[in-house]
Structures are given as structure tokens and as C-alpha cells.
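Tutorial sheet, problem 5. The two components below are modelled jointly, 795 residues in total.
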Amino acid sequence: MIEIIGLNVSYSDKKVLKDIYLSLQRGEKLAVIGESGAGKTTLAFTLLGLCRGNIKGRIDIDGLEITKLDERALKELRWRKISIAFQNLDALNPALRIREQLTEVIVEKSNKNLEEAYLEVVNLINLLGLNESYLERFPSQLSGGEKRKIIIAMALVNSPEIIILDEPTSSLDGEARDEVTEILKDILIDKTVIINTHDLKLAYELSDKVAILYGGRIIEYGETKMVIENPRHPYTRGLLRASPLLNKGKDLQGIPGVFEYKEMGCPFSNRCVQKIDLCEKETPKLNETGNRKIACHKGGIEKILEVKSLSKSFSDKKVLKDITFSLYSGESITILGKTGSGKSTIARCIMGLTEPDSGEIFLFNKRITKRDISFYRDIQMVFQDPFESINPRLNIYEIISEPLYIQKIRDKDSYINLVKSVLKQVQLPYSEEFLRLHPYQLSGGELQRVAIARAIILKPKILIADEITSFLDVSIQAKIMRLLLDIQENLGLSIIFILHDIALAKKVSDRILILNNGILEEYKSLELGGDIYEYERAMGRIC
Amino acid sequence: MIGLPITYSTIQRDEIFMRPSNIHLLGTNEAGQDVLFLVLGGVINSIILSILVVLGTNLIALILGSLMALYGKSLERLLLRVIDIFIVLPSNILIMAISIYIKPSLFWFSFVLILFGWAQGTKLIWSHTKRIVNKDYINAVKSFGGSGPYILRKHIFREVFPLLLVIAIQTTRRVIFLESSLSFLGITNPEIISLGKLINNSLNFLYLEVWRWCLLPPLLGLVGILVTLSSIGIYIEGKIDRRFNVDRDNRA
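Model answer (C-alpha cells):
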């Protein structure tokens, strides 16, 4: 039905859409998701022949190459074959009544007379949940939700086969948003629809396929359910984390940095947590990866740690039985279980502090056979009790810089700057006087921040946080957890939290794994805002 | 130039049993030797012997004790049994027997004392290190990639140093007491000046008034050294206890 082949659109020298390839069958619904300025509206306008930019590539609608049509032919096509519900509520003419604006489109684009057009409009607005009286109103007499419905009605009046909805729920409150979504579900059932939105929940509810647009390029494409339930591109995951409607469990997180226009390399590279040198040099192609298409040199979010069949017994008690789980780049997971269930043993086995009876650990897809000094650059741990995990004889500078000495990081002059920079990151003072203090001169919360600073000074990829707030009061606990999430966002850390508090786990985790009688069970991603009580029931069974 | 250890032959002779004067501040003994020189020589010899023994026993205790605790396993179990055997041995009697048999020089005597004195300190260092290596801050150092030698050097040695100081003072006290006792009994090398030997010699002339400058100075010297070392030991132990208390208070 719609075939977009190698579409490039630019305004002056600035490319707004780059190498877009999309195919849409009759009746299919595609959501185009992206932040403001990603190129969604340009794509919609190009499909309608309204784009004033320089267009290269080809768009076929039912075999008709619309990029080659003249304005007259395009006018014939618009509103009959393809229509749009604009994002801007001011798209309605303030000087005309709603009746006039809607019937005008019908009369102009079909052979129907004014009376037939009126009847059709009444039917349509009834379907949209409005009564006939609204037709006599001016746009200024309508609420935002009502205006939105009229704009949608305008796109539907001539029963076009293809409808583009540009941010159909923006500026609506929750109730109006849900109402519009429900209406759209019913009336768009047999239409081919392109939904431009940054509302992931709307895309999840209305579309069959989703294309994630970033910097004018499609970076992830696939079936909506699959992409949203299991995002594989770091940007898609970032969008999910930032979505308050889908993300009911974990605290909202943004995507680090801001969009930077670039001609070369991956458009997302300056914000990506798993960037490699190639990302700056070469633009990744949208390649088929499993059940979707991803534009990423690393094939999407990479698995950085994998634990397979880990078992450990102490005396006769089998504490861990065939523990298997994975950790992806930039992800935070929680291993949840009651005290003494063996949670910390998992962490200690990963770190090489306890020898497991059996099992394998893979770091960046390489099996760990011995842990040399480089292993500990990638993975760090923050221990439960800061008073135990920090040598009381050392001062703050000696404590935080110790990993640098051990790892033999050259340029010792820079140590002081590195120490000050991590202290800043953990929101502690970084004066010379503070650096000379000893642990007994700090509070528990401050000392735990020092421990976190020490753990992140080597810029590890993975951080294991073993019950790091169990010794702290509630307000300090909240601050420390928020701090870790901020650090995760900025540094792109992957974090394994070890916790026994389900409420806290929900706040900080993308996934929760529950350890019960030595068996680790994984639950549905919280990002989907799925049944969070499922966790409570699971915990209820074991606590 | 007087060599070490200081021997009787190195001290000049004058008239015997001279009273304390400007020339001989503490007078002379039955051989006409200056008592002050003899007492100082005895103290210096005791200190030299103590230093040798303390260096030997502490080095063994530090290296063996901390390595056993850090690396553990079967070697630890084996060495612990050996240490227990050495601790239960009647070491003073064995030292006497060996000294009578070989009449050792100061160096060899220190070797004998090290042989029978290393076990106690090693066990103390082992138990203290064992407590440290199980702490999370050592695990944290391991998790930065810290090697065994690094952990020993930067953390364990630092931590056990105050304990080594206490062990050193106790060892010194024991060495001086043992050396004086054995020389008093005439078991050690007769050439080397010793406070015990000076006391023993002076006891032969108790019937004369010379005991006041021949007996009292070495006796007071010996008591003075032992009391001073004991006081230092008690002070340091108190300091360490207070430090641990501070740590505990902060934890609470």
C-alpha cells in the first residue's frame, strides 16, 4: 500500500530525514515514535506532498509514485486517499463554525451536497462522542479534547484509506487521552494509519508496527508489542524509561545528553552508553536482527554479563541452585530475597570473592576463567556496611584513589582531579580539608557515598550494589538510590542491586529477580508497568 | 674504638674497689674496672641482643602470621600445629641447656632465643590478621584487583604494626630478663658484659661496703630497663585499646 524507498529530506543543507525505508500494507497501523525534532512531522508532510524541503527517494502509494506528482494531482489525493489530523489545535479556522469547516471538506472533495455532507458529519461526530450541538460552535468555544476530536473528524470525513495522526493525544489530560484512544481504536479498525507520537502507550495500544526515529533516521523497527516490551536499541529503552504512562514501577529516568545534529556516524552516539569508536565514524545501517530491524553497530543493547548455572553450597546447605541470569548494558536489575537467602553469595561469586561449586560467568561474552586486574576495571562492587568496607586508617583521598593505584593508572598528578570529580558526582564536598578526613569523621550516608565514589572512579561498566542502604535511615536511603540512578544515567552503568525491600526494588529496577530457596525467578519487566502486585505476591510467598 | 658486643677485656683497669669519684663516677669493681662503664656496657649488650631477637621474631611473626591468615588452607593448619608445639615446649629450660652446651656468642644466643620465641608472636599476628582479612575492606581491595602482596603491604602490615610494637616490647622484656638470669647463673659467654653477671660478681663482696657502688647500679639498671619497657608496653596497649574503642563507638 505504502512503500517508502530511500527517502531523504533536507531543508537548506540540513538533512531532516535520512535513508528512510518503510513498507505498510493495507489496514496496517504504524507508529512513528521520536522526540520533538526527530523528523516525524516532516515524514507526514512528505507523504501528503506538503513538504517544502528538498526530497530525494521515492514514495509509492498503491503503486503511484507521489514524489513525482504535481500539486494538482496531489490535491486530488489529499483528503480522499490520504488525510492528516494535525498536531496543532489551531489548525481549525477560528472564524468558521465547526459545521462549516467539516462539511466544506466533504463538499469540496466529493460529489455530495451540503445536506448529505451534514448528515455524514453528524454521524461522524457522534462516533467521536460529540453531539450535534457542537457543530454550531466556534473553535474557541471548545475544550482541548473536543478540538482534538474535531481535528480527527476532519481527517476522517471523506473516509480516506490512509490516515496520518500527528500527535493525536498531545495536550490532552489523562481522561481525555484515554477516551480519544478508545475512540480511535474503534473507528480506525480498517484504515491504514500512521501515528506520529512520542506517547509510547498510545503506540502500544493502537499500532501493529513501530518505527523509532532519531535524528531523522529509523533506529529500531519491528512489531510494536515486541519492540516496546523488549526494546533492543538503547534509545528505545531510554524512551521507555522516560515514559510515565508505561513506567509505573521504576523512577523515571531521562536519556543522558541532548540531541546533536551530525552528518557522520550514529546519530545517537553522543548519548549512547555502549558507544565504540566506530559509532563516531560510520552510520549504522538498519539491519535485520532477529525479529526486528536495528541500526546499531553493536546489534542493539548488548548483553554484558551472563551467569549460567551457578551453584554454591555451604556445609550441607545448598544456597544457590543453578542460578542463571543476564545483565544488559545500561540496565538495572534487582536480586530480591529475604535475609540469608544467598543474594550476596551471587555477588561474591561474580566478584571472585567466593568460589562457586559450579557454573560459568561470561563478561562481554567471554567466559571468565581467572580474574586478572583488567576484570575489575569493568565490574565493581559497593558493600553493605561502609564502616566495614572502608579501612578506618586511611583518609578520604587515600580511600578513593586506592583503585587507581592498584590498577596502576598512569599520571598520578591527575589522581587528585579524578578523586575530586567523583566526589562531585556523589554530591560530597571536594575541598582539600575534606580529603584529609578519616572515616570516623563522616556519617554513614556520607561514608557510603565515599564507597560509591571509590567504586566508580575506574569507570566500570557494571556496579553491584549489595544492600547498600540497609544501614541507612529512610531519607538517606532515598538520596543514595536516587544518586545511583543518576550516576547510571550519566555513566551508562549497568547495576545489579541486591535488596530485600520490594518497594525499593520497584523504584530502582528494570527487572526483578527473586531468589527463593536457592532458585532465581525472573519476573516481567516493570517498564511495561505490568502487574506490580505480581512481585508482592511472589515476595509474600517467601517472606 | 670499642667493638660490639662490649667485653670485659675492652675496659681499662685501675685500682680495685675505688670509691665513686670524679674519675670513676660509680667507683671500680674487684678487677679495677669502672662500674659505670660496666653498667652501660651491660645495658648496651642487652639492647643489642633484644634488637636482634625482636627483629628476628617480629619478622617471622609478621611474614608467617600474615601469610598463613591470607592464604590459609592446609599450610595454615600445618603451621598452626607447629606453632602450638613450640608454645608448649619448656623453652627456658631448653635455652639453658643449649647455652650450657654451646656457650654461644651474642649472635648465636640471639638465634637460640628467636628459635624458641617466634611462635607466640606469630600466633598473635595470625589471629589478628585472620580477623582483618575477613573484613569487607579487604574484599573491597580484592575487588579493585589488589594482589596478596599489596594487601599485606598496604593494609595488613599497617593494621598489625601496633600489635608488633607490643610484641616487640614484651619480647625485649623477656630477652633482657632471660639474658640477665642466665648470665647471673654463669651460663652465658663469660667474656660478654652482662648486668646479671655484674650482680652475681658483686654478691661475693656483700660483707664489704663496696656493694653500694658495685651491686646497686647494675641492679637498679636492670630494674629500670624492665620497669620502663613494661610502662611503654602498657601505654601502647592502652592506646591500641582506646583506638579500637573509638572505632566501636563510631560504629555504634
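Marking note: Residues 474-491 of chain A form the longest helix (18 residues). Full credit if you identified this.
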